[in-house]
């Protein structure tokens, strides 16, 4: 007989750790290198022994290595504080990873903005040339149509 494993448990534990770590880092970590950090996700292994903690930096996105070093220095303290705040048999080992998705999204958004600067100023002129007829005319057979 195979024991039933709760497949949602790592996800639930990850959400709990994300909430608690966000609060702990904001209130308890006094390392000047850490600064303002956002925890974007926490992926917990199925055995609940390891957790990857994804973070982004608010102020200095280009110097996230210092923030990572500060979080690694605070790892033991954070686990100690988590023991007092959450009811788990064992607190997972914390492995901090810089989340590049926000930075990548910002770069893509900037590229889109730059390409739109090169586009014609009045896009409505181009659209009206390609759409036949008057858009404001009512269609036949449509309720409220004057012609139908």
User: Strand order of the main beta sheet, please?
Assistant: 1-2-3
The portion of residues assigned to helices is: 40-55%
As a percent range, the share of strand residues is: 5-15%
- The CATH architecture classification of one domain is 2-Layer Sandwich
Output the number of helix runs.
4
User: Rough shape?
Assistant: globular
Order of helices and strands: HEEHEHH
User: What is the CATH top level name of one domain?
Assistant: Alpha Beta
Low-confidence stretches: none
Radius of gyration, CA atoms, in whole angstroms: 26 Å
| Class per helix and strand makeup | alpha+beta
Note the main sheet: 3 strands, mixed
CATH topology label of one domain: GMP Synthetase, Chain A, domain 3
Distance linking N and C termini: 71 Å
CATH superfamily (homologous) name of one domain:
K homology (KH) domain
Please, what is the average pLDDT? Answer: 81
Question: How many individual β-strands?
Answer: 3
